[in-house]
Amino acid sequence: MSNYSLSTRVCKIAIAICFFSVQINAQEKLYPNTFPLDQVSLTNGPFIKARDLNIKTLLEYDVDRMLAPYLKEAGIPVKKASYKNWEGLDGHIGGHYLTAMALNYASTRNAECKRRMDYMVAALKACQIKNGIAYPDWGVGYAGGVPNSREIWPAFKKGDFKAYRTAWVPWYNVHKMYAGLRDAWLYGGNQDAKDVFLKFCDWAIEVTSALSEKQMQAMLDTEHGGMNEELADAYQITGDKKYLVAAKRFSHNQLLTPMAAGQDNLDNKHANTQVPKAIGFQRIAELSHDDQYTKSSNFFWETVTSNRTLAFGGNSRREFFPSTAASADFVNDVEGPESCNTYNMLKLTEGLFREQPDAKYADFYERALYNHILSTQHPEHGGYVYFTPVRPRHYRVYSAPNEAMWCCVGSGMENHGKYNEFIYTHTKDSLYLNLFIASKLNWKEKNIALKQETSFPDEEQSTLTITAGSANFTLMLRHPSWVKEGTMQILINGKTTPYKKLPSSYIGIQRKWKKGDVIKVIMPMQTTIEQMPNVPEYVAIMHGPIMLAAKTATERLKGLVADDSRWGHIASGEKLPVDKAPIIIEDNTSAIPGKIVPVAGRPMTFAFANEKIINSETLVLEPFYRIHDARYMAYWMRLTPAQYVNYLDSVAKIEGEKLKLDQRTVDFVAPGEQQPEVDHALRQENSRTGSNADEFWRDANNGGYFSYNMSTQGLTDLSLNVRYQFATVAGKKFEIYVDDQKLKVVDHIDETRKHGFYHEEYLIPAAMLKGKQQVRIKFLSVSGRDTAPVYRVRLVKNN
């Protein structure tokens, strides 16, 4: 546990923190339809267990290490070294942690969470003051921990983006602390946090004040989190229109304009770069009623949830939105939907629901909450999940406290502290029951208290009881989309209440409610099948809103609990052949649900009956969120008997080639993709990126180059494997280096132009590798020619 006494120097600068009784219900000021978190308490069930385990996990982290980047950049002595934090992104985790402390304090009154929250705010206030004194030309109001801030921001302010572009997403980094400070006030009632937040917003306005609109839009090409959201929040807090103007300046037209026109331009875009932008669009629309922002945020949500989302609520692969043609990557790759994306999609969903309380938003929220968010916490040690693969028979890996500091560790810290946020909402005299989660509500405004008792999804019902008070209001009960028309039952004090609403709607019941009233909702659940978007031969099995999956093995789970390595968040264990995975053989997809039957005495547990499953012994289906420390089946190949022979032969051949290359691979990088390039310490000059045939590439021109650090694992018998495309390489000539030694002159001047990807391998002399754990692979343009576009770079074993 941290020593909570700041250095004398810091203490002299910091101002005493206000006691929690001031503004503890502050979140009502930004989100008027939500209840203060202390008015909604979780009772029994998986969510309170996850929340309490998360608090225990959070308190294992060291606050002084969280604060070190901010103190360091402000020139204040640090008490402890900062977390490893994915070198170059130091500081991003601190804002998430501050939000988590505020959320859990507001929900549980945990004194230790409050103490840590207040301690962090005091230190950040001291940093902000010191930055203003030490760096008056650029640092007034700055409260960030971006590495090399003293080089990046002064040049940036003058329109020189060179240091900004070589740093790792500086605005994304500081955005996390903007959100943390806002939340320390919003949920934790800390008035100093509000003051620091607003001054930090003023800094963002000042540091960008000299930039033209063209420069602003160029700047926004780099991931910047939800900066437009934070500035919109500042506008709502203060009413000062300068913040709304700034929020619009921080809105990326590359996404805003096409989305407002109903055009989906998301193919091959980094997913979690886009979702926070849309959250900001929604906040601007909510506060300014600007039609362009309204249309853009609504269309973004519709196209992502309808066309780009898997059955469990997640989206993206390798962090990017795939095109229709590339959607099979969900099966082929192991870097499945990213937890951060769903964290942000839920935030966008809540915002849209505030403006229009439509049941479709609650339907999506429920599905993503149960199947993805709840599944991303380890049920024993509390570790967080980055990628959720749906490749048949693969697995997830988990973080460990004080080690892996991924982005999804940061959002994971927050996820499990706000399960009580959306169960109930209110608008005027209407109370919305959005989620069927065991809980209690103390609606102070109406002097009404109620409890919801349920073990959903283990039972198909929920019971609400008014436990105190009486008042006139309309109870809006959600009719879930997954309950068939005419099958939902509502009983009030034992008597059936008729209704006319269809699935995915709210049923309004207006009356004077009083202590002792009991509302029972019965919601029969059905088993259904959902096809993978754009990959019809793969299906997921749903029971109500819950995705069912099956454990297949618990062996060979390499890196199950990740270390601090740069690629520890990827489940890098052996890929098992998809053609050897369980396959459902069925002529009629709609017949599959009827052949899935409950297992007696085991709630939400099912088995296949009279269904032909190839490559399988007995499999048990259960909620995906209950499966951990195992390989699993989340999506299933479904073939007709006729398809089985022909299709499987072609799949087996392709799989064999892919797996053989994977087994030889020591390290690889995907040029043009943000995270892999950062992970491999990209250096470049006169280099471009793009995508072609749904694959990303990088090249260099005019004497330019690009290079990556790649691991050799200490091996010396290696080759360099490079992926090219025939149609794009003619006329190219370039050199490849291993460290500073030339490996190969590649001459594609006479290359025959035809379509298709292919690999070339270049044997690396052992002397170039001897005694090295990593080497830098460099592609250099020469003779006035461009390098070929490079699609994949691998170090591979020769045997």
TrEMBL record:
Q: Which residues form the Glycoside hydrolase GH146 substrate-binding domain?
A: 660-796
The DUF4986 domain, residue ranges: 554-636
Task: Quote the SUPFAM superfamilies the UniProt record gives.
Answer: Six-hairpin glycosidases (SSF48208)
Q: Which UniProt keywords apply?
A: Signal
Q: What species was this sequence derived from?
A: Pedobacter cryoconitis
Q: What is this protein called?
A: Acetyl-CoA carboxylase
The Non-reducing end beta-L-arabinofuranosidase-like GH127 middle domain extends over 431-525
Non-reducing end beta-L-arabinofuranosidase-like GH127 catalytic domain segment(s): 39-420
According to the record, the signal peptide region is 1-26
